[in-house]
Write a structure and sequence with these properties.
3 helices; 4-stranded antiparallel β-sheet; 4 strands; Dna Ligase, domain 1; 105 residues; alpha+beta; 41% helix
Amino acid sequence: MTLADLQRLSVSQSELVLPYPLAITALQLLEATGAILMGWEGCLRYPDGRLGHSDMHQGTTNTSALSSSEAYSWAKVSMRLSQKEYELQNETTDIKLLFCIILNA
């Protein structure tokens, strides 16, 4: 899978917004290319297709003080924790947690 493939799968044309497994794949590919990761934020996709920000899954703060490998590592760990927390608390909902990956433009 390439970054172009992931962008086509993104629910947003302007940002990389993906479900957890694809977001982790994106992080691995972005890290390999040397892209500067600023962080991530949680997005919710509602059954009617609307997107909104998650109050519970805020994501990371600005990671610019971290090395690139630390930023990617922190993003992967914190995404995994948010995904697990989401799965435990939202077993019966049709709302999906997605991850918006924020890069330094």
